[in-house]
Structures are given as structure tokens and as C-alpha cells.
Amino acid sequence: MMLKPLSEIRVPGPLPDETYKITLFDRAYAFCGLKQLLGAADFDKAGERLAGLAAKDEVAREAARKILSELTLQQLFDRPLVADNGGIDDVMRVNYDIDLDVFSELAPLTCGAVKDRLLKAKASEAKRIGRGLTGVMVAAVAKLMDVHELIYAARKLKRSGKARTEVGLAGTLSSRLQPNHPTDDLTAMTALVYTGLSMGAGDALIGLNPAIDTVDNIEKILRHLDGLRRETGAPTQICVLSHVKTQMACLERGAPVEIMFQSLAGTDRTLTEEFDVTVDDLDAAYRLMLDKGPLGRDARQFMYFETGQGSELTYGKHNGIDMTTTEALCYGLARRYDPFMVNNVTGFIGPETHRTNFEMIVSNLQDHFMGKLIGLPMGMAPCYTLHSEITMEGQQIATELLTAAGANYFMDVYLGVDRMLAYFDTAGHDDQTMREVHGLRPAPEYLAWAMARGIFVEGDDGEIERGPNWGNPRIFCESEETFGRLMAKVPAAYGLENAGPRPADHVSRAVKANLAVAREAIYAEVEPQYLGRMEFRRVATSAESKVAHLNNPDKGARIAAAARAELTPETADVQIVVSDGLSAEAVHHNIPDLLPVLTAALEKNGFGVGRPILAPYGRVKLAEDIGDALTPKLVITLIGERPGGDALASRSLSAYMAYRLTEPGADARYEYSVISNIYSGGLPPAAAGAQIAERARQILTFKAAGNRLEKLLSARGSAGAAA
Questions:
Q1: Which of 117, 169, 281, 450 has its CA 20 to 30 A from that of 205?
Q2: What is the reported pLDDT for 701?
Q3: What Rg do the C-alpha atoms of the chain give, in angstroms?
Q4: 4: burial class by Cβ within 10 Å (0-12, 13-18, 19+)?
Q5: By the 8 A CB rule, do 180 and 418 touch?
Q6: Domain range 528-721, CATH architecture
Q7: Which of the residues in the chain have pLDDT under 50?
Q8: Which H helix or E strand runs over 125?
């Protein structure tokens, strides 16, 4: 597939905002600009309330929907949504790479008429319509649909992707097996892969989110996963969900990068400044996979993207565009690369974007419909974090509805507890439950393998049933002792016993009790007496309370005005900031052992260290406000992460190292490196202190952090090996 140069994609020039007016039941309503109209027409969500885009009440929302329903596609085409600088960014430009013949036919139709046409159309016609729509058009239609319509329309839009397995065929439901571990322990990964495969999971992908995103570590994990795939014989494909630039470096080394991954954003500023990737980078990754991808012609597609409502808003780079529309713009960008799979993780961020079960459920249904209409093979990950009000039951309702809507796949996170990312997703139990409720099967290539293994069998009525080895990962091990050694490395492993396709009751009770304890950690307050002998200076953030901190990330990212007035530039090389973030317990249990080791190691390396700061109710981006005030070269923020799936994981801390760029012509003001999962069940705090100090030394020596540092370190390693 040839990628059209951006310069050849025609986009109309920006126009002044139009005011949209209507009188509804003798009440006058006016919406200034298409962005405000699109925001007001959507369901009520935390992110839109935070951004000031939500309708003030239900009647205003219906007024906005009425206006939107009467706008033609041509009107939407003629008014591209501009960036904050008034220009057309690359993400918006790519969205205009549509089938212009189809668009010209549809252009006179109103959004309401397009909705009706989709609901009336047969599958082939509905798919053809999608080829002529931009992300903004797709979002506009989605905002006019109710739950039944989102499900009904999406179901007829089922699309498949083909690598080793074909995912998304009619009558199938697949899964992405996600064997994450807080320290990338290969033994634990092996146990989780065996467990997932034994439940018929992983036919879409074995895909791991790494804790450490370096070329050496990603290559090591890729080769390990490839070895497991070969050993078990499972017909699937592997992926490590690191940064696209890291994966490209691994592919150049000859590592088995079978599927190329990258997270996407719906505005160029978020994509480039926060995700450190451009459309040109994505184009280069696509071409590299086309040339060197190890699956070669066996794969019809080979790109994998992850999206989810709210990232643009969280970073404050949404260009005044609502979450649903920026999400649709992500899909317009993904369409450029004809991906093997797209995974939506709406609910992953927290209460600042989706606070309640309803907000998460309806957003997932919108996203699934929009992605499919644009032409993507959509997998879904209805998920939640413990600092939101979303519950496991709400997630299960979303999963049931998305299965009815024809989602290609869900995640398999063991017992629903992600041990590295500290969020909660679907499990292999959920995948199999949905298969049995809805009469679905795994991908055909994988099903044949699983039946040969006794994981599935054919019943007397010809239906596929769980076999004698379903849920028994010991079939991949030479002995019970071997399997026991593997499982000993897996945190939050509450038992392998099952009741039908569900976990046994005592396993469920252990999961839910630990979730309850972990959720409590969100609301604990940081107490200085538990932080050891270090003397801190206290700096208040703009968040006046725990509730304000949880629901508005911007407040925790800024110093309170009175506190800011007391901070003046200093001469220290490194400033350490300690904040509860999302878990005061993480600070209490790690700082006493970590901070003395870190401070001593930094001073031993000759770096000046400022007096540590304690900043309750802080967010990661607080580092930049403190850096601007005190002007150190590096700000190290030690912050409590959102609690994970057990009482121990509620103590997880991360170190975010923000390098302050002062060179002329630098692309960004701060670059970040991170060391995560610091707690007794992950990276022990004293060891973390030494590791953070070493990474700080590298950052200050090379004057770079993040991907730029990794590239420099990799180049030095390659030069050393060549010498």
C-alpha cells in the first residue's frame, strides 16, 4: 500500500467560527463554533465537563444534537477543526485522505440522514459509506446515536485483520494475551503466557507492555516471547508495546518485531510532544515493516495502534476539541496504515476523563462504532482504575454490550489485574464467557491448534466446548514442580481453579477483597512522620483537596500561587520532589529506604542536590512548574502510582526524571525518563535509589532523557561493540 504524501492531501482552509442557533420549546440556544457544538452534543462526561465543552443540561444537549443532525457532510468538510495556533495539524490533514468519490455522493446529506442510511444499509454499503468520512464526520454521527443504534450499526461493520491468524471473522471472538510484570520478569511472563494459552487466549496477539523501554530490554523480551510461541506451537503473533522508535531499532537488529505498535493521539501536539512520534515517524515504521517485517507476505497487515478517549484532554493539548471527536481523529490517522488491530482503552486514564460506569460504557460503544465505520479492525479493552468510580460490574456490562456489537477481541489480563500498569481489564475468563454466551469461537488457525491440545473439543451438537485441558497451564510444563516455580514469580495470583468459564468463588473473593483494600489507598493522606529522617520543604499545589486532585489533573500539576511566590532560582543540579500522587501508602513504604540512597549516590557523583520538596496532591507535570521556579538541570519526582490489584501493589512508586532543556532550538522544554513499579513486590526501594541515581547520571552526562537518551546510549553501545 502506498502512503499518500501529506502535501497531496487536500484540506479546506480555516474559516472563522460560525454561531449555531436554535429555538427549542421556546428556549433559545447558541453555540459558538463547531468545536463547542460537537462537545455540547455528546453524552455528559467528566472530561467534557472539565474542558468546559459539556452541555449545561439535557435540553441544551438535545438542542445541540438537533443542530448537528441538520448539518450536511459538506458543511463539516468545509470547516476543518484547527489547532490552537489556528492552523491545520498533520492528524487533521491525514483525516482528509478519504475516498472523494464516495464523499461527493454523500456530501449533500445531513448527519441525521447519514445515520438513518447506515441503520438501513446492508453491511457492504455501510462499509462503503465509511470510506468517504473524516473523523469529525464519524464523531458527529456517533453523537446522534443511542445505545441500541451504536451496537446495531457496529455489528454490521465487522472487519478482520490477517497476520498468522485472521482476527475478526464472523462468528469469532479473539483475545490479546497480556503477560505484563512489574519488572519484566521472564519467568513470570512464561507462567502468564502458559496460563492464557490454556484458556484459549492469545489468538489475536501475545502482546506485552514493558516496564523498561530500552532497545536491549525490548529485544530480550521479543526473543523470549518468540521462543514461547515456537515452543508451544501456538499460531499467533507477538508484540512488545514499546515506543515505535525502540521497536524500529530492534527490527534493524534482526529482532522478531512481528507486529509494530504505537499509541496514537487525535491532535498533533499530543502525538508529538507527549508521545514523541510524528506522522513521518509512523510512515517510516510502516515502510520498515513492509521491507523487513518477519512475517513477510504471510501477513496482510502488520501495524497495531492503541487509542482511548481522553489523552489529549489530560495533557491539555486537545485544541478545544471534545474527547469523542479527538478519538475519531485517532482512527482517521490509524486508517492510513491499514492496521492488523486497533485496541481502545477508554477508561484507562481515570476520573478526569470518565468518572462513572455509564461514562465508560457509552464511550466504549461510541469508540467501537466509530473505529469500525472508519474501516478499522477494532478490539476493545473496557477498563478502569481504582481512583475512578468505575467498578468491575460496570466493566462487565460494557464487555457484554461490546460483544453484542461484534468487537474483534478483548484483552486477557490474568484475573483482570494488570500487574505492571495498575489498571483493570478483561481476563481470559471473560473472553471465554463471552464466547459461550454468544456462540463464538477463536480464530480458525488457533482453534485447530487448541483442539489438538485438548483445550477445546467439539461437542455432540457440533459446538465448540471447553476441553479437559482448558484452564490447565501445566500442560505446557514438564512437571508440576516446574510450573510451581514459574507461578511463584507472578504477583496477585489467587488461584487457578475455575467454575465453568469463570474463576472459582474463592478466587473471585480474593480478587475483590484486594481491590477493596487497594482502592482505600487512593484516599489516604501523606504523613511526614512516615517519610524517614530527611527534612523536607513543603510546597502546596493548586489542588485544595483530595477530591479536586483526583478529578482535575491540571491542579496537581501547578504550584499554588502563594507557594510559587516563595520559590526563586537555585544552583542545584538536581531537585527531588516527593508527592503522594495517587497513593500516599506508596510514599510511606518506599521513601525512607529510597531517598537516602538516591541522595547519597547523586552527591557521590558530584551533583548538587537541592533540599527535597514534599508536595501533597501532586501530578507528574508538577516537575515542570518546580523546574521553572528553581531552575535545576533535572527534577526527579518520586510519586505514588495508582494502586494495583492487591494490597501490596497499592504501595507502588515511580520516579519521573524531567530534564530541563535550555539549549537553543530544542523541540521541547522537558524530556522524561521513568523508572516504575518501585515497591517490595517489584523493584525494591533501596535498589531503586541506586538505579534512579545511575539514570540521572546518564541524563546529566548526555544532556538528554527519554527516547533521545536511549538513542545516544544505544549508539554508544553499538560503537563499543564495533570497537
A1: 281
A2: 96
A3: 25
A4: exposed
A5: yes
A6: 3-Layer(aba) Sandwich (3.40)
A7: 723
A8: helix 123-130
* Angle, vertex CA 399, rays to CA 397 and CA 401, nearest 5: 70
What is d(CA 294, CA 143) in angstroms, rounded to the nearest whole number? Answer: 41
Within 10 A of 477 (CB to CB), how many other CB atoms are there? Answer: 17
- A 10 A CB-CB count for 667 gives 10
Q: Cβ-count burial of 616 within 10 angstroms (0-12 exposed, 13-18 middle, 19+ buried)?
A: buried
- Structural fold of domain 161-259+340-515: TIM Barrel (3.20.20)
Q: H/E element holding 498?
A: strand 498-499
Domain edges within the chain: 6-155, 161-259+340-515, 528-721
Q: Give the contacts of 719 (CB within 8 A, at least 6 positions apart).
A: none
DSSP secondary structure code for residue 528 in this structure? G
Q: pTM value?
A: 0.91
Distance of CA 54 to the CA centre of its chain: 24
Report d(CA 118, CA 190) in Å as an integer: 45
Across-strand partners of 80?
A: none
At residue 409's C-alpha, the angle toward residues 403 and 411, to 5°, is: 110
Compute how many other C-beta atoms are within 10 angstroms of the C-beta atom of residue 665: 5
> Residue 624 has which C-alpha cell?
515542570
| HEC per residue, 655-686 | EEEEEECCCCCCCCCEEEEEEEEECCCCECHH
pLDDT at 523: 87
Backbone torsion region of residue 316, taken as left when φ is above 0, otherwise alpha when ψ lies between -120 and 50, otherwise beta: left
Q: Is 617 left (phi over 0), alpha (psi -120 to 50) or beta?
A: left
The residues facing 31 across adjacent strands are 20
Contact call for residues 351 and 582 (beta carbons, < 8 A): no
Q: How many CB atoms lie within 10 A of CB 600?
A: 14
Name the CA dihedral angle for 218, 244, 708, 316, rounded to a multiple of 10 degrees: -120
The dihedral built from the CA positions of residue 208, 212, 215 and 220, taken in this order, carries a sign that is negative
Domain 6-155: CATH class, spelled out: mainly alpha
**Identity (one letter) of the amino acid at 120?**
K
DSSP state of 409: E
Among all chains, which residue has been given the C-alpha cell 541522595? 599
pLDDT at 718: 61
In this predicted structure, what is the pLDDT of residue 719? 59
